[in-house]
Design a protein that fits this description.
Length: 48
């Protein structure tokens, strides 16, 4: 899963100037990554 995501992020900055769908896709990807991180954080013990 990590490699396609990294590849998409690497190509996003050059493509976003004329491609709004790429921007929307990267925004969705960032939101998903954030929600995944918060879910992982919630499962960790509070002391960490």
């Amino acid at each position: 899963m990590k490699e396609p995501r990294a590849k998409a992020d690497a190509t996003a900055p050059s493509g976003t100037r004329h491609n709004k769908t790429a921007t929307a896709a990267s925004i969705q990807r960032i939101k998903k990554m954030r929600s995944d991180l918060t879910q992982k954080a919630k499962t960790l013990p509070a002391g960490i």
